[in-house]
Write a structure and sequence with these properties.
This protein is α+β, with helices and mostly antiparallel strands and about 210 residues long. The protein is built from 3 helices and 12 strands. Helix content is about 15%, strand content about 35%.
Amino acid sequence: MKGPLRVGRDISFNTKGVEGWWRGERSGVQILPAPESAPRVAGADNPFILEFPIRDAGRWPTTNYPITNQRRRREHQKLTLLLNLLLAGTTKFLRERPRHFWAVRFAGELKIEWVQEGYFADFGQIVVQELSAQVGEKLGEIESEKYYKEAIGLDGRGLFVPDDLDESICRSVSPGCATGQIRSCGLLAEHGVAAVGGFHVRRLRIACLRS
């Protein structure tokens, strides 16, 4: 089911702090810092807003809204997995079906609790007409050939991006880039650095199929 292009929005996380913005002119993807009201804890994964193009099947409260929302969720997850390959640190999203697990909590005394994984921040509407206004300063860029040598590790610096990030995203979507759908990716991370498709990423076995 086709429709006009809209912008899907959701929260992803990175082990490095995201204090600025980045926008891909060809891919239509944008990274923004989470709002100041978003929960943050030192040492925890850092939230950021991810914006990306989707096809609108219908807005709330139309009967086709669930299709639009499912597309938004699907593209958010695929794009987050792709950014986990292309960016320093670890980029992730929370599962739609939250996990439950045992956790240790120190509050004066040691407590073992059965908890549910979850996160919430008021970051505005999840489907909008166009990319949001940029917030803060633009994220620093590093030449792609040097990126995985200079930007790896928890060095106390915030997130930097490779200077060919927009191009790399476009190589991983269907023809038309911003108007295409991100390919499904099967990912097996290994150690080291290898050249893949003209840019350097961690050595990975990548099987990308069109959606």
